[in-house]
Amino acid sequence: REVLVSGVAYDGDVVKVTVYGVPDRPGIASELFGALADAKINVDMIIQSGHKDGKNDISFTCGKEADGKLEEILEPVVEQLAAEHFSLADDVAKVSIVGAGMITNPGVAAKMFKCLYDNGFNIDMISTSEIKVSCILQKEGAKDAVRALHDSFGL
Amino acid sequence: REVLVSGVAYDGDVVKVTVYGVPDRPGIASELFGALADAKINVDMIIQSGHKDGKNDISFTCGKEADGKLEEILEPVVEQLAAEHFSLADDVAKVSIVGAGMITNPGVAAKMFKCLYDNGFNIDMISTSEIKVSCILQKEGAKDAVRALHDSFGL
Ligand SMILES: C[C@@H](O)[C@H](N)C(=O)O
Ligand SMILES: C[C@@H](O)[C@H](N)C(=O)O
What we know:
Shape of chain A: elongated
Oligomer: homodimer
Distance between the termini of chain A: 8 Å
Bound molecules: threonine
Number of strands of chain A: 6
Strand order of the largest sheet of chain A: 2-3-1-4-6-5
Order of helices and strands of chain A: EHEEHEHEEH
Mean pLDDT of chain A: 93
């Protein structure tokens, strides 16, 4: 039994947004999340990975209650930031493994990814903390991923 | 005083790696982190944001003790994954704000990003959890970011 992982969590209340091709200069993240804060949008995950050719993509997730408001908030901001475009998807779910002190153990995240691969899941987004590894998957069938992870970690 | 944020953390023992242009299909993350796990590389943050045109970039951070080994581990894997290339940088630091239940409060992350902007910092990577917002910055001057964040959150 992997004592490192104590549970698997599922969150189906997820809208995933990616703003593509923002200029990689100070102030961009401030403007984007300032506009979301002004509109009282509760953000869950914020994910920005390495930049390329002076541009970057910034993703975030929020609850479905924001779904109707996001387009009208993002359109002016994305234009102001001179970003390329943004995408919005609510057919996704967040599946996480949770446990104390696990992320520094390199095998734990790899085991989660292997389990998702063996069960045919494509990973849309990844974010980790000291106690959690979260993956955004297509919502269809994501509950099966939870069961597969339970089995894989002996829970 | 922002009771939401209780501290600011600095970690200078950071190597940032981004693998660019991996095919966005099941099994890629499993192979990459499987290879790192086999080589006993302790990974800190794993960050993958939205994909584009069937490709994606995956970033991760680890401690400097891995620096000498990473190239020889990543070269064969990156080739096997048919990724475009990978970048490695150790002139970076992680600066985080920490506090209970803060990430759902949209203003907290925005306030951090605004503070970094006002002090001229460019944000390389972003990762969040329920209790933490972490930014990867250029190491030079990053300790000044810690002081600025202390002031901004009244700590
Ligand atoms: C891309 C975005 O994060 C930018 N680098 C900033 O500092 O705001
Ligand atoms: C890009 C990578 O995460 C891929 N989608 C996978 O599932 O492994």
